[in-house]
Design brief:
Strand content: 15-25%
Number of domains: 2
Order of helices and strands: EEHEHEHEHEHEHEEHEHEHHEEHHHH
Strand order of the largest sheet: 3-11-10-8-7-6-5-4
Number of helices: 14
CATH topology of the largest domain: TIM Barrel
Shape: globular
Distance between the termini: 18 Å
CATH superfamily of the largest domain: Aldolase class I
Number of strands: 13
Oligomer: single chain
Helix content: 40-55%
Length: about 325
């Protein structure tokens, strides 16, 4: 076997550093996506044996508290909250996480040194999302328990380096000794097997779980993801925070603005405050911001999150038993 870890005797679970760290059955993690990752999706994934994540990126502190409490009513399994560190009032989100005894936090979009020690003092498991080996090293130095290395293919906000997952995972693996989770362009058990062979100990999937009934995103957005083909997404807004979008009227406005060398202030004004909500939550497929990964081109069906976990796990097992089968 090419990767670290082993199947249980009955083949119903996997034992490695990631499954032990989180207390989960499978090393399959659902990404904390804005306007998609509420308590329903997180509970469905965790109850199916993976790790569900509540995405705080589109939530006010009181909304986050409500989702955490509803999750606890729906599941007794481990879960996490994804916390982007760029919020001006992030202290309120941190307070909610600590007060509600969230066991695991995935931080992103900021310096891991800022909050890791605080979370660790309170007994939380801390994971940070990175897009380069350089920042993975900084995470290890900051004391995080694991890192997510997210490649250029991913949906949502992305690294400026534009390093693909295939190149990123081996580079990060050589740079750190703590557990590594691969993200970006992963939607199948075969891709999971490939990432584990490259040195990852688990995978994080976002786009695949967007296309589930439990995701809180608008059904029109989900259908747009299912309809997407190769080349229908592009990484843009690199002067701000790079984000991968489905091409639509809003994207065309962004592209025109960037072609005309619009400055940061102009792009910020164009983006506005509610473009992502308009597109992904309200279903405006023309004027909304539609964040999704390149792997959307192979996702052709909306199906329950538990079924997604089951399919990915079974395909991973089959790939591990016979990596050259199709």
């Amino acid at each position: 076997m090419l990767f670290e870890g082993k199947f249980t005797a009955d083949g119903a679970a996997f034992d490695n550093r990631i499954t032990r760290l989180f207390g989960i059955q499978y090393p399959i993690i659902q990404a904390g996506m804005i306007w998609a990752s509420g308590w329903r999706l997180a509970a469905a994934v965790s109850n199916a044996g993976g790790l569900g994540i509540i995405g705080a990126g589109s939530m006010y502190p009181d909304t986050l508290r409500e989702h955490i409490q509803k999750y606890k009513q729906a599941s007794d399994k481990p879960f996490a909250v994804n916390l982007p560190l760029l919020y001006p009032d992030i202290e309120k989100h941190v307070a909610v996480i600590l007060e509600e005894n969230v066991p695991i936090v995935f931080t992103s979009a900021g310096n891991p040194k800022t909050w890791t020690s605080k979370f660790k003092e309170q007994g939380l498991t801390v994971v940070h999302v990175v897009s380069s080996a350089k920042f993975a090293k900084k995470c290890q130095e900051a004391g995080v328990d694991a890192v997510v290395a997210e490649g250029f293919e991913a949906g949502g906000h992305n690294g400026r380096e534009e390093t693909t997952t295939l190149c990123l995972i081996p580079s990060v693996r050589e740079s750190i000794t703590i557990p590594l989770i691969a993200a970006g362009g992963i939607a199948t058990g075969r891709a999971m097997y490939a990432m584990m062979a490259l040195g990852a100990e688990g995978v994080q999937m976002g786009s695949r779980f967007v296309c589930s009934p439990e995701a809180s995103s608008n059904v029109a957005f989900k259908e747009a993801v299912v309809a997407a083909n190769e080349g229908d997404t592009v990484l843009t807004l690199k002067k701000l925070t790079p984000v991968r979008l489905i091409k639509n009227e809003f994207y065309k406005q962004v592209q025109e603005a960037e072609d005309n060398c619009m400055d940061v202030a102009g792009l910020t004004d164009l983006l506005g405050r509610a473009r992502a909500k308009k597109g992904m939550f309200e279903g405006d497929l023309n004027e909304g911001e539609l964040e999704i990964g390149q792997i959307s081109s192979i996702i052709k069906e909306i199906k329950p999150a538990a079924k997604i976990v089951e399919e990915v796990w079974n395909e991973f097992r089959q790939a591990a038993a016979n990596p050259f089968s199709h």
